[in-house]
Amino acid sequence: MHTEAFSFQFFPSILAMATLWSFGSSLIFLTKNPPRRANMRTLAAINVEHKMRVPYELKKGQSRIFHTLPSGLNMEVIFQEGAKRKISDKGNDNSENPPLVFIHGSYHAAWCWAEHWLPYFSQNGYDCYALSLLGQGESDAPTGQVAGTLQTHARDVADFIQKEIKLPPVLVGHSFGGLIVQYYIANVRKDKTQVNGSLHPYITGAAMLCSVPPSGNGGIVWRYLFSKPIAAFKITRSLAAKAFQTSLPICRETFFSVAMQDELVLRYQKLMKESSRMPLFDLRKLNASLPVPPLTNPSLPVFVLGAKDDFIVDLEGLQETGRFYGVSPVCIEGVAHDMMLDCSWEKGARVLLSWLSSLDPED
Known about the structure:
Shape: globular
Keywords: Membrane, Transmembrane, Transmembrane helix
InterPro entries: AB_hydrolase_1, AB_hydrolase_fold
Number of helices: 12
CATH class: Alpha Beta
CATH architecture: 3-Layer(aba) Sandwich
Transmembrane segments: 6-31
CATH topology: Rossmann fold
Number of strands: 11
Protein name: OLC1v1010742C1
GO molecular function: carboxylic ester hydrolase activity; lysophosphatidic acid acyltransferase activity
Oligomer: single chain
């Protein structure tokens, strides 16, 4: 979720509020470093001034890396190595788990995964990489007014995977990051052997969490306006007017469960405020490019996960994503939009781990 710099002094009509929300907001991770080439640089190797005034302090076992994109811009990556797997009865390592590449939504950055989910999944044997999209977190910002497009963000993810990861990973995208994952898998190679420079590197699977649906946020906006006008006004105030940055109650209602402790909401509120130096997208151009194209590889495993208490993406939005990919979405009770940061973050993590365990990395 991200909002562009729109400001209205008042909302004279429902249409004005719809326009503000729809077009003014983008609803829409000291251990061994990972294998990397010359274009990956650890923070210790270069003199970097933090771009976030409230920099995220890494947890034990995590390292901050910078991947240099073809543009010359550096993309922040927080890495945590997976715990060593047990030896099977036959004396060989268990099948190697696919790496996980986490992609955040608006007003977030790599840190949102590093807080709970990177430690959790690394403990379960998965190498974890959390990316900060350009203009977000500690990543460089491109020239212009917005960070990029669906195409450029997906291309940056593809460049990182192509150059830095040996095994086909699983992409995990949250909110607007889920829409980027959807665009990626609409342009992905069908198998490991296929060579096509115009297609993104092969992956093992894709998971979308509280994701913006394939058609974008337009349907959600209008459903809220006519069925939940008060909620629509609150979301508009929170995101378009950026009230979540200054109001603790509004921030909690937008992103977290009611039971979330004040000190945690305040901490994440500060990090979210500092995470995004520019909008992820130009919403008018984005809307013109939607819906995302269908899968190039229909056999690719896709997982759609939502939260019952999501204040941003409604149940119909979740179901739309499931229908588009021909899967039954899973909706978790007692979890809010930011399921990876919420006080019940383990619920979503356990469900995702169960799905990951069902994947065959050799497919």
